[in-house]
């Protein structure tokens, strides 16, 4: 047991990676030896990239903690350190019990092995003893609904069956602490619901769950508290609502930063100069219009194209509008002005961000959160039904029912 | 408790023991996979050493006319191949094992050492199948190896330690330098001819003899032939030397592996 009765105690944790030593790195023994012989005195210079820096927090028993943050904030690195997949550079972690990890679906699954063999292999890799697996075997099989195919190699399974079996093994891991990395976003809707319920039970049992995600919705339903990571540091640790608030408000600072082209990723051969929307807010069924102005680069050979993503507040990419799909390739020798009109897309009320990517063979400019718009809370449908008639689904749609009473044969 | 890795650390044997189920499942997987969807399955295990012993008999026994200390050449080279394959295959399977289990190494934690170590299991199974055929050959040729046969398990264990020690080093290096994958088969190929597998060490010219006597694989082959064919016992210093080299190399290999282990997920 750790001091203070915490399940997880992390103090001053840091992880650095060495990146691009002046664009050179030994990949073969010969290169490494030659480098040493040619420059015996040269100290190797690495640029240090701090994926995690001075992270300290503690998690009491029985809590389900969500770890949220933008891409590259260090969520997955933190999880890898906690599960000992990789070693920290600084600091220490104390764990009050056994830590089980679900960093992917189907850990150790081998396509040639049968379902039964894979249950034992994957279970043991996840840290279960043979006795535990035997004890849980029946309920794993029942949960996965593949009992008829237990002695069939999993390479002949449908992808749905495969995922169900893989998740079932993981869900029956009975460690005191469980680390999960977005494995819930798999399988059909029915199975997702079942998985979520299972995960909630885990937390209710007084065990501790660490859940990494950028799906805000699941974090809200699953977690009792949350940690918001920002560029490898802890930006917030407390109730889930607060973390979500931070995540959303980080859009503002993030968007401000991104408007400076020098701080954006991409080669910079062609940069977007300005991105604007025809309006600040739309009704759900209205056409959305994005105006993009692009700089010229006379030195560039060939053409480029533009891809626009529209993301909802939970970070889900709702649509991708790639100019190649409609036969638009742009000439870099002169500045360009583009108008993107999105028709027939019925968005749910809420806040949306627009990402603009300028690409040719690689990414020239990646401008995330280039623009923000609001979809007003009005219903585009002819009848007014309750909120529960609108709550499910990612988007709305222009649908119709055609009802024909059928007389009994 | 998780802290940054120290430079030198001894393997945590208790951790390995706790994860023995993983080793068992790895071994089971390797063995099952090798014979699933093969038409004649386990027969491959016998065919390989038989065919090489046959070729050796023709090339070295008949064409080159090398001696085999008065033992029928075919069974002499068969037993040599058996011991050699045990060493060579344990090393050869261990070396690429981490790289071929890449996804596991970068996704879950378990003592990494289990990957190269458990790859020895299927080789050991092959060895025993080959040994059964070897016993049949002994009966057919009417050879009685004598009391030394009881020492055979010791030589097997020592060979496993020797090959695994080298295998641990090779597998750890291969995570970073894929050159090992090209170098190793070439080195073992040379070793095969530089060691008295297909000929008796007594056939070696006196000038070169010290070189051969310094090769631990010569000692290994001598020990196996002593226990399996009733050949003359190797000198005592070779017995002691082989034990020391095997245990020593395994230990060095384990320490080397351990000090690289925690960077695997970052560089693989």
TrEMBL record, chain A:
InterPro entries, per the entry: AAA+_ATPase (IPR003593), ABC_transporter-like_ATP-bd (IPR003439), ABC_transpr_TagH-like (IPR015860), Bact_Polysacc_Export_ATP-bd (IPR050683), P-loop_NTPase (IPR027417)
Give the matching CDD domains: ABC_KpsT_Wzt
Regions annotated as coiled coil: none
Keywords in alphabetical order, please: ATP-binding, Nucleotide-binding, Transport
Is Transmembrane included in the keywords of this UniProt record?
no
Residue intervals of the ABC transporter domain: 33-256
Q: Does the keyword Transport apply?
A: yes
List, alphabetically, the GO terms of the cellular component aspect. membrane
One function term, GO molecular function aspect: ABC-type transporter activity
Q: Which family does it belong to?
A: Belongs to the ABC transporter superfamily.
Annotated PANTHER family: TEICHOIC ACIDS EXPORT ATP-BINDING PROTEIN TAGH
Q: What is this protein called?
A: Putative ABC transporter ATP-binding protein
UniProtKB/TrEMBL annotation, chain B:
Tell me one GO molecular function of this protein.
ABC-type transporter activity
Which GO CC annotations does the UniProt entry carry? Answer: ATP-binding cassette (ABC) transporter complex
> PROSITE patterns per the record?
ABC_TM2
Q: Which InterPro entries match?
A: ABC2_TM, ABC2_TM_bact-type, ABC_2_transport
Which terms are listed as keywords in the entry?
Answer: Antibiotic resistance, Cell inner membrane, Cell membrane, Membrane, Transmembrane, Transmembrane helix, Transport
**Membrane-spanning segments:** 39-64, 70-92, 113-141, 147-170, 182-201, 236-257
* A single BP term in Gene Ontology: lipopolysaccharide transport
Cell membrane among the record's keywords? yes
Q: What Pfam family is a match for this entry?
A: ABC2_membrane
Please report the name of this protein according to its UniProt entry.
Transport permease protein
UniProt source species: Luteimicrobium xylanilyticum
User: What are the leading ranks of the lineage?
Assistant: Bacteria, Bacillati, Actinomycetota, Actinomycetes, Micrococcales
């Amino acid at each position: 047991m750790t001091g203070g009765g915490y399940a997880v105690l992390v103090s001053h944790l840091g992880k650095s990676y060495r990146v691009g030593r002046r664009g050179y790195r030994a990949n073969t023994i010969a290169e490494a030896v030659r480098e040493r012989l040619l420059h015996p005195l040269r100290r190797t210079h690495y640029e240090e990239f701090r994926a995690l820096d001075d992270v300290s927090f503690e998690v009491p028993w029985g809590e389900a903690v969500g770890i949220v943050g933008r891409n590259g904030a260090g969520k997955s690195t933190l999880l890898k350190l906690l599960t000992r997949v990789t070693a920290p550079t600084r600091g220490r972690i104390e764990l009050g019990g056994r830590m089980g990890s679900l960093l992917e679906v189907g850990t150790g699954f081998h396509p040639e092995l049968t379902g039964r063999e894979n249950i034992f292999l994957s279970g043991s890799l996840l840290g279960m003893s043979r006795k535990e697996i035997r004890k849980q075997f029946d309920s794993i099989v029942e949960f996965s609904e593949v009992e008829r195919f237990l002695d069939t190699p999993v390479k002949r399974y449908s992808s749905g069956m495969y995922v169900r079996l893989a998740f079932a093994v993981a869900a029956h891991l009975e460690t005191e602490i469980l680390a999960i990395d977005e494995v819930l976003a798999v399988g059909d809707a029915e199975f997702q619901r079942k998985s979520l319920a299972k995960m909630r039970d885990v937390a209710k049992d007084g065990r501790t769950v660490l859940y990494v995600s950028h799906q805000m919705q699941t974090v809200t339903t699953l977690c009792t508290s949350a940690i918001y990571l920002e560029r490898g540091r802890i930006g917030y640790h407390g109730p889930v609502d607060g973390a979500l608030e931070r995540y959303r408000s980080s859009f503002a600072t993030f968007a401000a930063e991104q408007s400076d082209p020098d701080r954006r990723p991409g080669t910079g051969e062609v940069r977007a100069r300005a991105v604007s929307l025809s309006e600040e807010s739309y009704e759900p069924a209205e056409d959305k219009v994005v105006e993009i102005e692009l700089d010229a680069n006379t030195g560039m050979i060939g053409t480029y194209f533009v891809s626009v993503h529209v993301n909802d507040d939970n970070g889900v990419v709702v649509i991708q509008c790639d100019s190649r799909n409609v036969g638009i390739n742009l000439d870099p020798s002169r500045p360009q002005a583009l108008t993107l009109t999105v028709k027939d897309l019925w968005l749910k009320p809420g806040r949306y961000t627009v990402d603009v990517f300028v690409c040719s063979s690689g990414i020239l400019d990646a401008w995330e959160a280039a623009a923000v718009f609001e979809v007003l809370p009005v219903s585009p449908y002819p009848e007014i039904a309750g909120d529960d008639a609108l709550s499910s689904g990612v988007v709305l749609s222009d649908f119709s029912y055609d009802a024909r009473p059928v007389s009994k044969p | 408790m998780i802290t940054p890795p120290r430079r030198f650390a001894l393997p945590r044997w208790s951790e390995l023991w706790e994860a023995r189920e993983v080793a068992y499942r790895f071994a089971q997987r390797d063995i099952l996979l090798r014979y699933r969807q093969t038409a004649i399955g386990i027969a491959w295990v016998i065919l390989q050493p038989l065919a090489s012993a046959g070729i050796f008999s023709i090339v070295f026994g008949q064409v080159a006319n090398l001696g085999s200390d008065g033992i029928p050449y075919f069974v002499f080279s068969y037993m040599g191949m058996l011991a050699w394959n045990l060493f060579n295959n344990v090393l050869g399977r261990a070396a690429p094992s981490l790289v071929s289990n890449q996804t596991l190494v970068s996704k879950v934690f378990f003592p990494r050492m289990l990957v190269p170590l458990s790859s020895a299991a299927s080789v050991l199974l092959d060895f025993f199948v080959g040994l059964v055929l070897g016993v049949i050959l002994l009966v057919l040729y009417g050879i009685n190896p004598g009391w030394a046969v009881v020492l055979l398990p010791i030589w097997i264990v020592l060979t496993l330690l020797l090959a695994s020690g080298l295998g641990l080093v090779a597998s750890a290096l291969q995570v970073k330098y894929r050159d090992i994958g090209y170098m190793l088969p070439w080195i073992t190929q040379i070793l095969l001819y530089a060691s008295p597998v297909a000929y008796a060490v007594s056939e070696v010219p006196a000038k070169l003899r010290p070189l051969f006597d310094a090769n631990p694989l010569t000692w290994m082959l001598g020990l196996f032939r002593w226990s399996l064919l009733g050949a003359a016992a190797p000198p005592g210093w070779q017995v002691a030397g082989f034990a020391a080299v095997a245990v020593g190399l395994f230990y060095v290999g384990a320490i080397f592996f351990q000090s690289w282990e925690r960077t695997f997920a970052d560089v693989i």
